[in-house]
Amino acid sequence: MTVTPFTDKPIKLLEYDGTPGPDVDSLGLSKDEFISIYRWLVYARAVDDRGYILVRQGRSGFYAQIAGQEASQIGSALPLERTDYLFGDHRSQGSMLVKGLRAAEWFAHQLGRMLDPSQGRLMPHGPGRKDLRIVPPSSTVGNQITEAVGTAMAQKIKKTKELTICYFGDGATSEGDFHVGMNFAAVYGSPIILFCQNNQYAISVKLEEQTHTKTIAEKAKAYGMEGYFVDGNDVLAVYAVTKHCADRARRGDGPALIEAYTYRYGPHSSADDDTRYRPKGELEMWRNERDPITRFRKFLEYRKLWDDAKEQKLQAECKAEVAAALEEAEKSPAPEPITVLDYAYEKLTPHLEWERKELAAELGIS
Amino acid sequence: MATAQAEKKQTTSTMVQAVRSALIDEMKLDEDVVILGEDIGIRGGVFLVTEGLIDMFGKDRVIDTPLAEMGIIGAAVGMSLYGLKPVAEIQFIDFLFPGFDMLVSEAAKMRYRSAGEFGCPMVVRSPYGGGVRGGGYHSQSPEAYFVSTPGLKVVAPSNPYDAKGLLIASIRDPDPVVFMEPKKIYRAVKNEVPEGAYVVPLGKAAVTREGKHVSLITFGAMVHVALEAAELVKKDGVEAEVVDLRSLQPYDMDAIAKTVQKTGHVVLLQEAPTIGGFMGEIAAHIAEHHVGYLEGPVVRVGGWDTPFPYALEKAYMPNAERVKRAIQKTLNF
After folding, report:
1. Distance separating alpha carbons of residues B148 and B276, to the nearest angstrom
2. Cα A45 to Cα A49, A76, A95, A231, distances in angstroms
3. CB within 8 A of A162, min separation 6: which ones?
4. What is the pLDDT of residue A118?
5. In a domain, B199, yes or no
6. What average pLDDT does this structure show over B270-294?
7. pLDDT tier at B8 (50, 70, 90 boundaries)?
8. Mind telling me how many Å the CA of A28 is from chain B's nearest CA?
9. What value does the mean pLDDT take over residues B2-29?
10. Distance, CA of A46 to CA of B260 (rounded, Å)
11. Measured between beta carbons, which residues in chain B are less than 8 angstroms from residue A158?
């Protein structure tokens, strides 16, 4: 299929009722691959649902749900290779799971256990894993953008065929980081996909109060970069556009901006009250008419690849996997208090050595 | 000159030449070392520290950047995550602040937040300090911000030999280093600098002048003001010891202990405003650990607690006379 930049309407391959458009078969995806995509969508939501329950049970701190944005996250992470770098934000767990992060590690991250790759050092919005090339995000909106561009610059300097994908939200496009990062990426022709999940709200501020452009994708023009506007609730469209940009990057054709137009079902985070700012009926409309998982399931049914029995089996499998992952996370020990001093530097500085003695005395250990 | 002839591999160098020599030697040894910044390519940097490097190492390793400090430091973070060892130049440290967030939120915290999986082996080098008629935006000494950010190391050399060895040590260090170059003495102070790579270890101070009556603890360009003050008080029979910290984070606690225990009198000297300054930390450290050795107050000499001025620079910056009065204050207690 031809993937066109700067469209007025989001690129989509599936109708809301799951009816496939003419380009679906040009993706070259097999039946098994379609089913595998569906499995990722369902699994990501199951993990997310369970993660949010942990917050409501008082067992986890801050949590930003991905519900509603699964197609954007799964569809954009599937074209990545193991050697590609992923920079996420506070709402990237779906992409991280596809890249290889285990649900048990995610739950351990929420619970602050040793199985958490950050060993309890980061508020639960995304751990990293070096072997998977997932960089742990900070909470400062947009910081990952110039950082990710630097990694992509390095990939080009080292003449690799790798690329970097960087996730951020619509709010982040108002930060200087976005504009500086876009400019650097374009100037150096870096192999990077700048992936904006436009869920239309930055906490409470609506997109039209965030920016005066009609789309976010069109901002790419100002940097001499291609910008793609895609239906973020259509997993095949997100996959197709991301794959296109990944192929371009690997060919040496440089960076691209993707705007995935989507919607979050939950509040910004567990500390937010979204009833204060959403117009009545908006959430219900997206949930009932545009849900990315239902939409893809209807496509599978249209293609006779899916039925109720398969659905029940998959739901049960995901539920069991999530339960097992949570159990594994719960079994993981909490970090020892003395480890609070570790990893500020590669080795304890002399002053930290002294502080370690102070803390050890406080803890009654040697 | 006799020394330079006897030791063939030594060259009398300015700090600019020494820093340049460190970059060249380390880039020859390690192809993962890249440098980036504004005007560092064909222009060779506004102070000519990187003169000619683009011809030696090419555009992939000597990277002229768009004018955005946030991008320079952000890109350096990303490169270091990938395994390169970027050395970013910020044209004046006063202009680092658009990139401050990338330094303190990203470079400084990456190792901690990944429990040691990722690190940022990178250097941000930048000219700092007053005395060049630079006014409020080409003269500041903002070390306190960086020193109080766990995860960063902070280094400030006082002479060409140390500058080269400390910069090479900083490039090889696994943690991010803010490398502050005292621009007032970029060309004014010369000493012998060996050819080829060598290391001056981070975290180790140097006793620049021995003395037994009072300790002048400082770093960077102020080392030379301290030496001048030591000469002034010598006429009164006061033997001042000058300790050049060289590294501010981590700082050399042993060297501080040694000199304080030796003299019992301490003057702390920095260019930055005194309130919340780095020397406040040293004063507190001495008060906490060595109070029994003190025979007078710990006296700080710094810039006044104002923004850095232009025409009134002389009235602002610490000088030998001011240090002398501080010495008298602690000795006559």
Report:
1. 10
2. 6, 16, 12, 19
3. A81, A83, A84, A85, A155, A191, A250
4. 96
5. no
6. 98
7. low
8. 33
9. 84
10. 63
11. 82, 84
Q: Are residues B188 and B219 in the same domain?
A: no
Q: Is B200 within the bounds of a domain? A: no
Nearest-neighbour CA in chain B from A177: distance (Å): 7
Q: Which of B165, B194, B223 is the last residue of a domain?
A: B194
Domain A24-335 has CATH 3.40.50.970: yes
Place of tokens 């590609």: A84
- A188: nearest CA partner in chain B: B65
Residue B212 and residue B180 share a domain: no
List CB contacts (< 8 A) between A332 and chain B.
none
Q: Are residues B301 and B180 in the same domain?
A: no
Tell me the one-letter amino acid at B50. Answer: T
Q: Which residues of B are catalytic?
A: 138
ipTM of this complex: 0.97
Q: Which helix (H) or strand (E) holds B208?
A: strand B206-209
Between helix A308-331 and helix A31-56 the angle, nearest 10°, is 50
Whole-model pTM: value is: 0.97
Chain A residue whose CA is closest to B110: A136
Residues B234 and B182 in one domain: no
> Would you state the structure tokens that stand for residue B235, as one six-digit string?
């006429």
Any idea what the CATH number is for the domain that residue B174 is in?
A: 3.40.50.970
Question: A130 to chain B: which residues are within 8 Å by CB?
Answer: 114, 117-118
Cβ atoms of residues B193 and B17 within 8 Å: yes
| Domain end (from B161, B194, B227) | B194
Measured distance between the N- and C-terminal CA atoms of chain A, rounded to whole angstroms: 65
**Domain span holding position B225:** 206-331
Per-residue exposure over B292-316, b if at least 16 CB sit within 10 Å of its own CB, e if not? ebbebebbbbbbeeeebbeeebeeb
Would B68 be classed as within a structural domain?
yes
Handedness of CA B20, B26, B27, B33 (dihedral sign): negative
pLDDT attached to residue A202: 94
The domain total for chain B is 2
Q: What are phi and psi of A6, to 5 degrees?
A: 60, 40
For A38-53, the pLDDT digits (tens) are: 999 999 999 999 999 9
Do B178 and B256 fall within a single domain? no
* Distance between CA atoms of residues A32 and B77, nearest Å: 40
Do B245 and B132 belong to one domain?
no
Q: What is the pLDDT of residues A193-228, one digit of tens each?
A: 999 999 999 999 999 999 999 999 999 999 999 999
Query: In chain A, which residues touch B (CB < 8 A)?
Result: 85, 117-119, 121-122, 127-130, 135-136, 138, 140, 143, 145-155, 157-158, 164, 176-177, 180-181, 183-184, 187, 342-346, 349-351, 354
B118 touches A: beta carbon within 8 Å = yes
B286 and B164 in a single domain? The answer is no
Examine the pLDDT at A289 and tell me if it is beyond 60: yes
The CATH number assigned to the domain holding B281 equals: 3.40.50.920
Kindly determine whether residue B250 and residue A350, on different chains, have CB atoms separated by under 8 Å.
yes
- The answer to whether residue B201 sits within a structural domain is no
Contact A117 B105 (CB under 8 A): no
Tokens of A112: 């602050």
pLDDT in tens, B124-163: 999 999 999 999 999 999 999 999 999 999 999 999 999 9
Domain residue ranges in chain A: 24-335, 336-366
Report the C-alpha gap between A311 and A330 in whole angstroms.
28
pLDDT at A271: 83
Per-residue pLDDT tens for B176-195?
999 999 999 999 999 999 99
At B262, give phi and psi (nearest 5°). Answer: -75, -45
Query: Do B249 and B134 share a structural domain?
Result: no
